[in-house]
Amino acid sequence: MQYFALLIGREQDRSPDDAAAAMAEWERFHATAGSAIKSGDALAPAAAAVAITGGPDAPTVTDGPFAESAEVACGYYVFEAENLDEALALARDVPLAKFGAVELWPTVHAIDQSRALTGNDWLALLLEPPASAHTPGTPEWEAVAAKHADLHAAAGDHIIGGAALHDRSTATTVRVRNGEVLITDGPYVEGAEIATGIYLLSAADRDEAVKLASMIPASTVQLRQLAGISAL
């Protein structure tokens, strides 16, 4: 089973030495987790984020940042794990968990990443009001799934990965403080909208990325450029 992990923390300006030490810690995590990491990268600064609301019929594009706190999404992973306990063990070892949080969601299904990630790729996080976040297998879910099938046909190779997420009641947040693992049920922040899925998009530039994200059938799409540093 695959799990989507959203990494949440404070964006930091580091000295070259501190940045090198941090990168070494991430590389050790990648080496330890190995093939359990199916996808992942850091995100470009939140100030460059884009939100698209209104759906494909009447998209409205708004520039970020959007966070109301100092902590923002700053990276993601997709893990392969036999069960939640195994996924939590991976999340616990993410270096950011020691000073931020890892929000872990089981996926309903996932699109395997089709190639290595670069800094020209984008993460699209799909958000819905709770009333519009339908249960998998229901007629409402299937109707939205049909719209996503149309998106796949239209976007083609621009979609290089993605996942549909289970309900927020299945989400778990992991933090590590002073060596103690703190696990809480639910997403890191309870907001007016909840995550329902992700896409990884390939685009020549920001304008093309926004155009692709505007085609996604979701109430809100938060679009973040990847840093392209994970080599995954």
TrEMBL record:
Pfam families: YCII (PF03795). This is Transcription initiation protein. Belongs to the YciI family. It comes from the Bacteria. It comes from Mycobacterium parmense. Signal peptide: none annotated. SUPFAM superfamilies: Dimeric alpha+beta barrel (SSF54909). InterPro entries: Dimeric_a/b-barrel (IPR011008), YCII (IPR005545).
